[in-house]
């Protein structure tokens, strides 16, 4: 079975999935959402979960650098509860401090233009979050 990795933003949701052995994370897509309206792209997530036979979901949990929980982490916590209710799968909140910065560095190192980086940064952050989780399991 596979693990789904999600990076929640206010307007987009980065999506990554593990390989069947749970060793590597691959970026799938970025879903447009409207967090304020409670629109999280659940229909598309259902399609992805079914297609890849996902059995666990990992959601980035953006703690502050001092370890405290701020507004974005609370948003991730609320989102995780929505996912648990909607999909009846285990949802793990995973510390994602600096994941977006790591994703940005990888894209810069790969010489991806600023315009293209904006389009894929959330998907890459989801990859970083998921890969960190998978590495912790090894």
TrEMBL record:
Protein name from the UniProt record: Putative pre-16S rRNA nuclease
Keyword set includes Nuclease: yes
Enzyme class: hydrolase
Coiled-coil intervals, chain numbering: none
Keyword entries, A-Z: Cytoplasm, Hydrolase, Nuclease, Ribosome biogenesis
Domain of life per record: Bacteria
Keyword NAD: no
Family that this chain belongs to: Belongs to the YqgF HJR family.
EC code(s) of this entry: 3.1.-.-
CDD domains per the UniProt record, alphabetical: YqgF (cd16964)
PANTHER family (alphabetical): POLYNUCLEOTIDYL TRANSFERASE, RIBONUCLEASE H-LIKE SUPERFAMILY PROTEIN
Role description: Could be a nuclease involved in processing of the 5'-end of pre-16S rRNA.
A cellular component annotation (GO) from this entry: cytosol
Pfam families: RuvX
UniProt subcellular location: Cytoplasm
Residue ranges of domain YqgF/RNase H-like in the record: 1-103
GO biological process: rRNA 5'-end processing
GO molecular function: hydrolase activity, acting on ester bonds; nuclease activity
């Amino acid at each position: 079975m596979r693990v789904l990795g999600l990076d929640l933003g206010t307007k987009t949701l980065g999506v990554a999935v593990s390989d069947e052995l749970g060793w590597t994370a691959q970026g799938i897509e970025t879903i447009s959402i409207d967090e304020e309206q409670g629109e999280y792209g659940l229909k598309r997530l259902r399609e992805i979960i079914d297609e890849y036979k996902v059995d666990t979901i990992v959601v980035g949990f953006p703690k502050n650098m001092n370890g405290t929980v701020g507004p974005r982490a609370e948003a991730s916590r609320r989102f995780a509860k929505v996912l648990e209710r909607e999909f009846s799968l285990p949802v793990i909140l995973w510390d994602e401090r600096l994941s977006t910065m790591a994703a940005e560095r990888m894209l810069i190192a790969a010489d991806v233009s600023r315009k293209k980086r904006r389009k894929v940064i959330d998907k890459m952050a989801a990859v970083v979050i998921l890969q960190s989780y998978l590495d912790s399991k090894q």
